[in-house]
Design a protein that fits this description.
With 285 residues, the chain is an alpha/beta fold. Helices cover 34% and strands 22% of the residues. The chain contains 8 helices and 12 strands. Strand 3, helix 5 and strand 4 form a beta-alpha-beta unit. The longest helix is centred in the N-terminal third of the chain and has 24 residues. It is globular, with a radius of gyration of 21 Å. The relative contact order is 0.14.
Length: 285
């Protein structure tokens, strides 16, 4: 049996997502389809590429050898797809959470006025690099560190952090909250694409429980139901208003850095015009 692209996509998705279920969500297919793809790849390469356990899925020794080649093959296909679409005359800007917040519309309109021949398109991609690693966008809005060996980035602004609370939570009576106020709470944390990290509380010795989530919808659903609280950048406050959810500024948390990122292996990929425009939007806020 020959190796097919869908087999490689399934394998890489499981490695990156950490489970077959999450990989299926990323690929917009069924979990059974992901399992079949990995099984077919294992037949093709003559051995198991994934070690399954009750807690996590990880590559076997053979999988570790196959993974770099699989990534290169998928990158090559994405490059071909990009070349085929080069005449679209659009700049695809990826993001994992909330685009540019309240600056999104301003940047869209100012870009259109400055260069109507090149359309700017914001693309939501639930990945740590906002779609850069997957090759589906030209540049991305990133709010946490990316691999400097593969990606470059420019700082365009910062965003205050906000507590995300159920409307009936006692902390909503305050104008602002502090990190110590989260003691005893269950905090929703997206380890892949979010900006709330567990080490926010480490220096304080505060007892905080954590619940893993995937994306802003998970966060808002848990919070509205009173099952967790959260911390999020100001962009989420602007982009995601929901009944039953209240935002309050976190007074003692460091702001979140907002960067525009691009791939190092794409000559001329640095989006100077976009960097200037977004930087101006944040500076004038």
């Amino acid at each position: 049996m020959s190796v097919k692209l869908e087999h490689l996509r399934a394998f890489v998705a499981v490695v990156d997502a950490g489970s077959f279920t999450d990989a299926a969500t990323e690929l917009h297919v069924s979990q059974a389809a992901v399992s079949r793809g990995v099984a077919a790849l294992e037949v093709s390469v003559g051995g198991r590429v994934l070690e399954r356990s009750t807690r996590r899925v990880r590559p076997t020794a053979l999988g570790d050898r196959v993974l770099p080649a699989a990534r290169r093959a998928l990158d090559a296909v994405r490059d071909v797809e990009r070349l085929a679409a080069a005449d679209r005359r659009e700049l695809r800007v990826g993001y994992a959470w909330s685009a540019l917040g309240r600056h999104t519309v301003e940047v869209q309109r100012r870009w259109a006025a400055a260069d109507p021949s090149l359309r700017i398109v914001f693309v939501q991609e639930n990945s740590p690099t906002g779609g850069l690693d997957e090759g589906v966008v030209d540049v991305a809005v990133v709010r946490h560190p990316v691999d400097p060996a593969r990606f470059d980035s420019a700082l365009v602004g910062t965003e205050r952090r906000y507590a995300v609370l159920a409307a009936d939570h006692p902390l909503t009576r305050r104008r602002g909250v502090r990190l110590r106020d989260f003691a005893g709470e269950t905090v929703a944390v997206d380890d892949r694409t979010g900006t709330t990290t567990r080490d926010l509380w480490d220096p304080l010795g505060v007892d905080v429980r954590f619940q893993s989530i995937r994306g802003v919808d998970d966060l808002l659903t848990l919070v509205a139901g009173g099952q967790a609280v959260g911390i999020t950048p100001a962009a989420t406050v602007a982009q995601h208003r929901r009944a039953g959810v209240v935002y309050r500024p976190v007074l003692d948390a460091e702001p979140v850095s907002v960067r525009i990122g691009w791939r190092r292996d794409r000559p001329g990929a640095r989006p100077d015009a976009l960097i200037r425009l977004v930087s101006e939007a944040y500076a004038n806020a």
